[in-house]
Amino acid sequence: MSILPALFLSAWTFFLIESGAWWGPPSLGRLAHELTTVKVSDVAWLLLGTVLVALFLHPLQLAMTKILEGYWGSSRIAVALLRRRITHHRKRFERLLARRDELEQRRNRVLTKLLVGRYLRALADDPATAQDPIKWDPEQLKRELENLMFSTEAHRASGTHAAMASIPALLAHYPDPDRMMPTRLGNTLRSAEDSIGRQYALDAVRTTPYIALIAPETHLSYLQDARQQLDTSVRLCVVALLVTAETVGFLCTDGWWLLTALGPYFLAYIAYRASIAAAAEYMEMVRTVLDLNRFKLYESLHLEQPGDTEAERANNVKLMDLLAGDDEANLSYVHPVAGTPSTGDSASTPPKTP
Question: Is the dihedral of CA 227, 74, 190, 103 positive or negative?
Fold first, then answer.
């Protein structure tokens, strides 16, 4: 996770220097000559630089992720940038809502014409059984339009229906407007943070560290794999942006050679989009691990196991207050019998047992 982005940065810097880009326009001939005469010491220095860069990048992983999420501080410049980018995403969210309604209306117009055609044919064949769609209540009309999508007559509306169905997936990556972040990665993560565990009245950010300590190893391995994909994408994006800036610095006076910076910039864009997909997958794994292990959490905290979801929500409201440090929160405890795993004690050893 650390070596590959670091190797990319070190190798790109090596190629820029060996091509003579620091002293003038780069020369591919010179680069080819230097590569054919490379020494063992050059490879050693390249590997050493890669290791040093990897060691430097590793502790900065959280900071890099936070920057790509949109935590940019509170300075005047940061506030201006935050306002501009959040406004962009709020407007995009509104456009998606409007587009969804527009597509739904367009689809329903096509389907309504089909229903009217059915009514007219039924009216001509058997007026007694014909049902006028205009007289249906909105709920019945909505059900009939949805059922009509299963028929072969609805082919003309299939494209519009598919386009409309793709919008909820985009909307799902946005939190409520007052919680929006300035970047797509930040909105994807925050939307998941706000929704995971909400049906149980659990706060995902507060409970996930506890669940990570009690979940089975198989659950944690899946979670760790998803997290590594996110971290690798973020690190590669940041490194590619650094390479882009470095390339601009080397080639800013070399005319058309400056277009070389588009290569690492395009890689940064691809890595950023990959980080969004990885973030969505990671948060889905967090959701699944929480769903499967929340009762282990209650057991580990010596809380009474809820009998139904209503009781679970009521207990979890107080549990979240307690974990947040509210000294007025009050919960009833149920301590397991001695020897069970949640007590931390082992069962007594029977006599003559080795």
Answer: negative
